[in-house]
Amino acid sequence: MTTQIRRLGPDDLALVVTAPADLFDEPVRPEWAAAFLADPRHHLIGAIHQGSLIGFTSSVDYLHPDKPRTLWINEVGVVDAHQRQGHGRALMLATLAHGWAIGCAEAWVLTESGNQAARGLYAAAGGTATPAARAAAGVIMYSFRPPSAK
Predict the structure, then answer these.
(1) CA-wise closest residue to 76 among 56, 106, 62
(2) 12/56 Cα distance (integer angstroms)
(3) Which residues contact 18 (CB under 8 A, 6 or more apart)?
(4) Cα–Cα distances in Å, from 49 out to 2, 57, 64?
(5) Cα–Cα distance for residue pair 131/59, rounded to 1 Å
(6) SS (H, E, C) the chain
(7) Of the candidates 128, 131, 132, the residue with the CA atom closest to the CA atom of residue 145
(8) Closest to 43 (Cα-Cα) out of 90, 106, 102, 86
(9) d(Cα 64, Cα 3) in Å, to the nearest integer?
(10) Tens digits of per-residue pLDDT, 1-16?
(11) Closest to 50 (Cα-Cα) out of 25, 75, 27, 19
(12) Residue 44: beta bridge partners?
């Protein structure tokens, strides 16, 4: 059976609330999940396998007075039993495609310098890491540009 990758919306609240316990960092609060899913600037891309949410990316698009629309990728998660199967990369690519489709000029995500799995994922999704001098401080930023900007 295949895994479906798609943006989740308000109609997917039950899917998020019933996600496996090891997917999110903390228990999902239905009222917070409903608010997140209803907010047009908040984006939850889900990996759905056999009717269950097994992975996600959460992101927010935002504006500044002096910068174009940008996508901040807050988190990527895949349940333990489904890791190392390409779901994280598929989620990242779908998240980036969504960001470009809504007009974001850039996307970015942060990770700890010691998180080799995240670093590999973000590089595999086309991210460019911050210079080594800044990475030595313990945090690495990966930035992404739309294909038309490369």
Answers:
(1) 56
(2) 13
(3) 52, 53
(4) 7, 15, 37
(5) 24
(6) CCCEEEEECHHHHHHHHCCCCCCCCCCCCHHHHHHHHHCCCEEEEEEEECCEEEEEEEEEEEEECCEEEEEEEEEEEECHHHCCCCHHHHHHHHHHHHHHHCCCCEEEEEEECCCHHHHHHHHHCCCEECCHHHHCCCEEEEEECCHHHC
(7) 128
(8) 102
(9) 36
(10) 589 999 999 999 999 9
(11) 19
(12) 8, 58
Q: How many residues belong to the chain?
A: 150
Exposed / middle / buried, residue 131 (Cβ in 10 Å: 0-12, 13-18, 19+): exposed
How many angstroms separate the CA atoms of 10 and 23, rounded? 19
Nearest-5° Cα angle at 143, 6 to 91: 20
Per-residue pLDDT reduced to its tens digit, 97-142: 999 999 999 999 999 888 889 999 999 999 999 876 555 568 889 9
Spatial strand order in the sheet of 42-49: 4-8, 42-49, 52-64, 67-78, 106-112, 139-144, 128-129
Closest by Cα among 73, 105, 84, 78 to 23: 78
